[in-house]
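hey so i finally got around to running the thing on that chain from the lab meeting. sorry it took forever, my laptop kept dying and i had to restart like 3 times. anyway pasting the input first so we r on the same page abt which one it is
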Amino acid sequence: MEKIELLEESKRCLKCKNHPCENACPIGTRIPEIIDMFQRGEELEAGKILFENNPMSLVCSLICPFENQCMGSCVRGIKTTPVNFPSIENYIMEKYLRETTFENTPSNGKRIAIVGGGPGGLSGGFYLRRKGYDVTIYDDHEKMGGMLRYGIPSFRLTKDKVDLLEEKAYESGIKFQGNKIFTEDSLRRLKKEGNYQGVLVTTGAWLPKELNLEGVEREGVYYGIDYLKNNIDLGKNKKVVVIGAGNVAMDVARTAKRQGNEVLIAYRKKIEAAPATKVEIHETVEDGVNFLTEVTPVKITDKGIVLERNNEKTQFLYECDNAIIAVSQKSQFNVESLDGYFYGGDLVTGPETVVKASFTGRESAKLLDDYLVGKE
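ok and heres what got predicted. didnt touch it at all, straight out
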């Protein structure tokens, strides 16, 4: 949408006294205030407020589950369409990030390590850098971004948006060490051996939850997060079954479809119970992916996948070339009670939205700051 269209859209805001849109946002975005500032032409000032509250605002404006949050709570939506705040937010954040030079806050002499360079780690890193801490982010990937860069397909989030956030992180003075792999033991030693005053662990949830299913070790069977992370090319004209109906399953199915394949999502419940948002399911259907619900996978054979109809308890073979299991993820590390260590992001909550990872990353960074200030 062009700016003139966004201004017209902003005028649809009823300025509700109770701010249901703001209350529905997991990170408390000050939506009515931002809309007022946008209407007054205070776009850079609004961008600063958005970013300091949620450094992932640019990303959230594109991939948040709006229908469950701000737009789903908009009073306008009762009788007509809700106010499209995400598009307004996106315009403001693009302008703010591209036109603002970030301040490299003078050092307070204290060093912080952040393990995990995804939305939680970046959110915490920006907060701590503004407080003057010397921040180094470690990640097992080559570049910053975590799930934003390596887990979300480009048709949902173009990587230039992640590049922009990475650029602003460097500009603000955040250091980065990529391709750094930690074990539980080396993570415990990091604070002392690296001479850090505190450690924020935001390593996300990258390990697939495995299915106890005969045949999962067969060639052509993948786990969803690995399929996305490693950019696996299945080839064309294949029959692909995706097991699961969460957001990752939708991303997997749409990616496989874009590779030129016939794709079926097999889910054990009714579609209304799917963890994926209604919008994502709709977009997946629009892409030409088929759904088969109320079926449970029994085993994978050299010919395909055996499914059982839940109501009838009858089994049948669905012939396919590939099966991709996307039934959630888990973290590599556990939350431990270690002096000076704080935890955030999907490591704490399990697989969640970007906005919730940003929130927990920021809040954990605040706790770390309080801890260090209290030791002075």
